[in-house]
Structures are given as C-alpha cells and as structure tokens.
Amino acid sequence: MSFVVASEAYGRFMGRYAEPLAEAFVAFAGVGVGDKVLDVGCGPGALTARLRSVGADIAAIDPSPPFIDAIRRSFPDVDVRQGTAEELPYDSAAFDAALAQLVVHFMTDPVAGLRQMSRVTRPGGVVAACVWDGPTGALAPFWDAVHVVDPEAEDEALLSGARSGHLTELFEAAGLRDVVEDSIAVDVVHPTFEQWWEPYTYGVGPAGDYVQQLDDEGRARLESAARERLGKGPFTVTAVAWAARGTA
Description:
It is a single chain. With about 250 residues, this protein is α/β, with parallel strands linked by helices. The protein has a single domain (about 5-245), classed as Vaccinia Virus protein VP39 (Rossmann fold, 3-Layer(aba) Sandwich). The protein has nine helices and seven strands. It has a seven-stranded mixed sheet. It is globular.
C-alpha cells in the first residue's frame, strides 16, 4: 500500500473529499484561534489548510517525502517533519491538541499512535481523529463496484476505526478520557464519471493498489461495473466518517 505518490495525485484522489471533511472535523475537534495543534499524518495539507484558516498555530508530520515537500511549498512557515504517529519527535505536552484525519486506519499500531498523540498534548488538551466508515465512506462506491466483479476482494471496511464504536475503543485503550464519537458526512459532486474514476488509476492507497494489480481486461471490467452503478454523471457521493475526540 503506497502513499509515496505525487501530492497532486493524492489531491485528485482524496483531496476532493478530505478538504470538505477537514472543515467538519476541525469543528468537531473544537480547536481554533491561537491553539497550538499538531496535524498527524498531514498528507499534502487538507487539514493543515483548514487549521490555518481558523487561526491555529500548526505543526505537521507525515511519513511520505512528497507530502512533506508539498506542505513546505504551500505553508513555508509550518514546522513540518517526516515521521510516524507511533514515534512522534516532539516534547511531552507540547501542543494544545493533536489531530489525525484519515490516518488511524493506516497506523501500524493505532493504540501506540494515539498514545503518542496524547503524550505530546498538554493535560486537558484535545486528541481527535476521523476515518471513513467502511460501508458508506468516500471509497464505498469504488469497493461496491469491485465486489460486483470480485466478490471476495478485501476492501477497507475492516481497517481500524472504520466501524461505529471502534475509534472509541482505540482512544480508551490509549488512555484518553471523556471520549466522544460521532459521524460526520460530506457531499461531493462529481461532474462526470471520468472525473471520479481516473484518480483510482494513480496507485494511491489500497484502492489504487487494487487497480494497479489488475490486467487491462480486469481494469476494463471494473470500470464498466462502476460506470453501470454510478452513471455518466453528474452524481453526488455522500461520504460518511467516524470522528472521535478525547482528553489527554
């Protein structure tokens, strides 16, 4: 599974959902002007941009070198570092809040990652995360089409946090207090089928990996199944995510 891809490819693949999601997620987390916030798994900057727009003081970290470069180009004043959630290179209690958007489900050890997020957050500060719901998240229409042609394909529904209540379990296992979980949703309009489909061919994440391993015939069958389900466009994808916040 690869996220070492051009930031532009990731932006076209997931940014179209991640940007509106960031607005809802920041509101859910309750951070704002003057808060010192760590963006964990920042990607090319959807959440960073939203945090900046509400007046937060931001630091960011991600394991992908192309994403680090993208943040540095877009936000040259942001302290951005390469690294993972499980080994955050920051002092304890360095931040008012630590947020992770669409990251927990790809952590090698989600409890360790959340524990690190709690460690770098001051006592009483906020730790928050959100992930797509398995059956109704942003990638659900893609995996629904996959299952038409490949019923046994393993999708992203079993990833960490991708079901109701699982983020709460992970947060509590990491020692966070007063955990609250809720669903948040965004509506994304796709003007054409081609605009929706093309980013899946870029090799981003599990969905991109699945498309990349298909031969030409298999890829054509999947594209046809998706087109039959979604139509030529325009159509709207309602993408649902689970979000949780807790107190460090």
